[in-house]
Structures are given as C-alpha cells and as structure tokens.
Write a structure and sequence with these properties.
Length: 486
C-alpha cells in the first residue's frame, strides 16, 4: 500500500512542477490555489528557516522531558515575543505552558506546538546508535520539530495580519508534557481553547499525509488496595494481604479481556506490591490503562473495572480504590479540514532528499532491521489510511474546536518510533526539511481559513454535526499536574 501511495503522490508532484498557482486534479481533491497572502506565508517560512532550524536544534539538544521543558518553552515563547506576539506564560498551572496571540477579532485560528522529549533515549544526529549524553532524554517523537514548525506557521500568519492582508486573530498554543500528563487536557479544562474557530496541529512521522484517521480514547487509572500488615509466619491470620487483592484484580482483568471488543486494549503494571515476604503487605498499587477507538467503549470498560476491583477487595477483606488519573478522548477527524490540508500539501509538493540523506535513512533502516527503502518522498492519499494504535492529547482539543491534523515525514520509513532513529533524523537536515514543509503546509492551510469564510464554515458545520452537542470533559483530577521539582 505504501509503495502505491508513494508512486501516486510522486506523479502528482511531477505534474505540479512549474505550475505554481495552477490547479491540478488528484483524485477528488485538487491542489490548493496560491494567493498572494499564501505565497507571502510560504516565503516567510523560508525567510525564517535559519531561525526555526536553530530553535528546533536547541530544543533537540535540551531534550527536556514532560513539565521540565523550561528552556525549550522559553526559547519558543521568547522568539514569539520578539516577533510581536503577546505571550502569556505559565498558563493552566503549568510553568512550561504558554499562549502567544496576535491580532484581534474573528476568525480566531489556533495552532499547537509541542516540545517535550522522552527519557533515556539520548542520541547523536548519527546513523548509528550512539547517545549524545548517556542516560539523558531524547526527542524520539520529534517534538523539537513540532514546536518550531507550528510557531513558524503562526509567525507567517501574524505578518500577514500585521500587513492588513488577513483579518482576525492567530493563537499559538505552547502545549507541554504530551508524553506524560497531556498538557493540552489541562489547558482545555482551563478554557484556553474556547472561542477558537479552528485549530491546527501536525506530527512528525515516517510519511506525509493529511490525517483522516482517529486516535484511541484512553483512561489511565490507579487501583489501590489497603489491607492489614502482620507477621507472615507468626500471625498471618491477623493479616489481610493487599497483594492478594492486586493479584485477584489483575486476574479478573485478564478474564475480562476475552469479553471486550477486539478494538479495546487494557495494559497494566504493578507499581507497589509489598516490601519483604515476612510482612503481609498492607498496600498494593496497580497502574492500568484502558483504550478503544470509541470513548463510549472505554467508559464501559471503566465501569466493569471498578466492579473487578470491588470483587478483589471483597474476596480478600481489603479495601480497594479506583482513581482516574488522566486520559484523552478519541480524535474527531474533520474531513473538510483534511481535504484542505491535503490540497495544500499537493500545492507545495513533497520534500526531496539528497543521496546522502537517503543513505543516512537506509543506514538507520539496516541497523534496525527494517526494509532499506530510505525516506518517504510524496504525499499519501486521503483514502485508505490505516488505523494505528495510540492516543494523543490533541484529540481532546478536537472536541472543543474543529482540528486539522497533518503528518509530515521526518524519520526513515518504518524505523522504530520513540527510539534513537527519530532522535537522529530530528537533529539534522532530514528533520529540518520535514519541519519546514510542515510549517508551510500549516500556514498555507490557515491562509485558506482566513480568506475563505465558506471553507471555514464547512469545517465548522462538520464539527457541529459530529460532536452532536457532546460536552467535553477533561479526564484529569482537580488542580494542576504535579510539576517535577528537580
Ligand atoms: Zn509525539
């Protein structure tokens, strides 16, 4: 499938060469039209390319993990401020969350940027596995590129509003901790996305496409049992084991597993299970995540998991407690928005790689045992995109405002994600090229939303029809997330 998509897109791109501004039909979606404002935003991304690449590389080198992204958030917020945005820092109780705003009135178009790294996967910008700093974090999800590209798009739009070529407001949302607590969920609960007419986001990937597939809804739980300690040999009859309860609970979950939808997932780890065998454990703690492509299924599983916990507590004469610690909704795909993004990807044409870059990608593929096909060069069609497991806090926002999402290739095809290959290409020219394409595609699509009220209305009409009056509620406990002190 991937090969067919690639050939298809390459042909489409070839048709576009030398025809800037022309309309080329590809399937049901035509390449977008280039207007003066759109050309100006594309030129703006080019003009800021060195700064954006520099920002991305700094954030790549900082490699700060969730809610520790102090220097990364400051780098983006400072640059936005220098470019003329009003910046509000430390929003929603998170020191590394911020909102940068420019302009006034409607429409209000938002764009999201992430910048958190993953722990323990430090890597040089090299085609062999080699940590930059052993034990440190690394950008194995490419969020260094994500933040810089989205800010670049926001700046391009800001310049057009300042020049009087576009009317309305642009908001850049600096959203921390996607890999952990989901900073967007806290920002959403604070109402920061209220009043936004549409919001855009992208994600680094191993291929390029306007996304037509959803993500999985998820709820994260802490299941705790409290029993009574006693000497495990001397007076065990006085004890009531919390670990017995935890074992019966996980056994119950594994029995339940046969009677859930094939689309559902339950995965757990045991975080506390006693200290020494000669003490009957008084406390046990299990972390359990529930997922499905539909939030209703997750809610149904959650109700059953509560019963399993109650049952395990009853059997062991302990007490059980189930706490929802977080979660995210399933992504509400906006097809009108995806078609718009796709048409702008077709206008821009795909990234071209040098032989050296393709060789770099193939060396990574050889090292990780995946086919040596190099980098994806093209735009995948809207049709036939496979659903792949995973959850994101972007999905929560998709229930508050119509959300347009694009994936752009920044890593070798099929190379392991959340791992060293993504860190490696995210810190060199392969990642930079993807980042600049993402910035241009997002800016060009935003221009259409400002310039074409009918297109924005279609995006919003679809959003209203699909949400059907559902009121968004964040899966997070009261108060801000705990910010690491160290
Ligand atoms: Zn990510």
């Amino acid at each position: 499938m991937q090969r067919i998509g690639l050939l298809f897109a390459t042909t489409a791109a070839a048709l576009l060469v030398g025809s800037a501004g022309a309309t080329t039909t590809v399937g049901a979606v035509k390449a977008a039209k280039e207007t003066p404002a759109k050309r100006a935003t594309i030129n703006s991304v080019e003009r800021h390319a060195a700064d954006l690449t520099g920002l991305s590389d700094r954030i790549w080198a900082y490699a700060e993990t969730a809610l520790r992204e102090t220097r990364s958030a400051a780098a983006l917020a400072d640059y936005g401020e220098q470019q003329g945005f009003r910046v509000e820092r430390g929003v929603a109780g998170m020191p590394t969350a911020f909102v940068a705003t420019f302009g006034s009135g409607r429409p209000v178009i938002g764009i999201m940027g992430e910048y958190d790294a993953l722990p323990g996967i430090s890597q040089k910008a090299s085609a062999v596995q080699e940590p930059l700093e052993p034990g440190a974090g690394g950008h194995g999800c490419g969020h260094n590129l994500f933040g810089a590209a989205s800010l670049g798009a926001a700046i391009a739009i800001k310049e057009q509003i300042a020049a009087g070529k576009l009317k309305g407001t642009v908001k850049f949302f600096g959203t921390p901790a996607e890999e952990d607590v989901g900073g967007k969920v806290y920002m959403a609960r604070e109402g920061l996305f209220d009043g936004v007419d549409a919001v855009l986001a992208w994600h680094p990937s191993d291929e390029t496409q306007a996304d037509m597939v959803s993500s999985q809804a998820m709820v994260t739980l802490l299941v705790e049992f409290e029993g009574r300690a006693a000497h495990a040999a001397g007076d065990p009859w006085n004890g009531r084991s919390a670990v017995d309860a935890a074992e019966l609970f996980t056994h119950g979950i594994n029995m339940m597993r046969e009677h859930i939808k094939p689309t559902s997932r339950m995965h757990y780890v045991i975080l506390a299970g006693g200290d020494v065998p000669n003490v009957v454990p008084a406390y046990a703690r299990v972390s359990l995540w529930l997922r499905d492509w539909k939030r209703d299924e997750v809610e149904g599983m959650l109700a059953r998991v509560r019963k399993v916990a109650d049952g395990a507590a009853t059997m062991t004469e302990t007490t059980g407690k189930v706490s929802v610690t977080g979660g995210s909704w399933d992504m509400l795909v906006n097809e009108a928005g995806a078609r718009l993004l796709h048409s702008n990807l077709l206008l821009l044409g795909p990234v071209k790689y040098t032989d050296a870059e393709q060789d770099f990608a193939k060396r990574i593929q050889r090292a990780t045992g995946v086919p040596e096909v190099g980098m994806f060069e093209g735009v995948k069609p809207l049709e036939g995109q496979p659903e792949e497991g995973g959850s994101t806090d972007v999905a929560d926002i998709s229930w508050i405002a119509p959300t347009l999402h694009v994936s752009v290739a920044t890593a070798p095809v099929d190379a392991p994600w959340h791992a060293w290959p993504v860190v490696a290409t995210g810190g060199m020219s392969i990642g930079h090229k993807g980042m600049l394409l993402a910035a241009k595609a997002l800016a060009a699509t935003m221009v259409d939303l400002y310039e074409q009220p009918g297109t924005l209305a279609a995006v919003q009409t679809e959003f209203k029809a699909k949400t059907g009056g559902t009121v968004y509620k964040a899966y997070v406990p009261d108060g801000p997330p705990p910010v690491p002190k160290d």
